[in-house]
Amino acid sequence: MSENNHLFSSNLKMWLAIFILAISTFTIVTAELAPIGLLTPMAESLNQSESMIGLTVTLYAWIGAISALLSSIFLGNVSKKRLLLGLIFILLVSNVLSALASSYTLLLAARVIGALSHGAFWAMIGALAMSLVPARQLGLATSIVFAGVSAASVFGVPLANFIGSQWTWQSAFWLISLLSVLSLVGILCLVPSVKANSELGVSALKQVITDPLLLKIYAATFIAITAHFTAFTFIEPYLQTSDSVSNTMIAMMLFTFGCAGLLGNFITGAFIDKYLKRLIAVAIVAIACVLVTLGIGAQALTQTAIVLLISVWGLATSSVFVGFQTWVLKTAQHRAFPASAVYVSIFNAAIGSGALLGAWLVSQFSFSVLMICSGVAIACSLVLLALAATNAVRVETLPEGESV
After folding, report:
1. 333's torsion region: left (phi>0), alpha (psi -120 to 50) or beta?
2. Tell me, which fold does domain 2-397 have in CATH?
3. What percent of the chain has pLDDT over 70?
């Protein structure tokens, strides 16, 4: 009986640690993407254009991409728990400074500080999650941890929008600061001191970036995430231009997007180990169809139709985010840390590229063109997805000792 109690206690501690990691991922991604839901109030308050506020997302993402790569080379031997606590503390400082920023320059400085912790956080979080659970539960654990990503991408943004519309945009960053404190306390109390079992350093990084299968997954990820964020960065002003959408409904639509995303994460977690590649493919097709429809029918769509389309978008986004990350971890195995670092760099570069491309498309054309181009682009990632899936089958069926 005591052995069963001990086993239950160990499992409970393990999943509580995974849960607090999910809260941490929610916090750090919400901090990154908060300006997306606050473009209009931030632009008005700081006397900047919406495109300039969108560029704060770009800067944050690109600095995060660089810090992810550097962390896998120089921070690999630091205690993972200690490193995680330090990174969340830096995030806290960044959010407090953002809330206090009275000019665009000060806001940029605060965002740079946060971006430095962002990349390092994502480089090690996947390897840390792998070290906390048995191999047979990796898919479930990854889904829970990266539920924070999905929740932040599709729920944190509407939350920031709601707070910004009800009070001030600074209030949203104060709330993210409180979430940072919660993450700090939770990690301190619940996450054990573990050593992630992963190859480190420049040589491990070289192995990752020359792996044919990982390269295809990375390329598909870059195209899909760039296309998604090209559209998603400007979802709030897009809704503002629709004649059928009232201003009071925008926050509710973004909230619906978030709820659909969380549901999508549960669905992904249930099927990801058996149908990983199919889930990603179906999700990409769904997003492509939604974006093209939003672009073509920008003024013709009813409010109900837009809600349904946004719900499908949010549902599918979770499978894309969690799916690609899990695929990388399963493929990399003992190279999880450097493989995650490269993935994070590509993911963040894609976010930055998407925000930048979206800003250019909006300045030169219209929101309709923005949506259509994004839909076509994300559909193109299916080609690389198919090549990666074929490559994966070849690797799995090779005789022992052979390589591609």
Report:
1. left
2. Growth Hormone; Chain: A; (1.20.1250)
3. 89
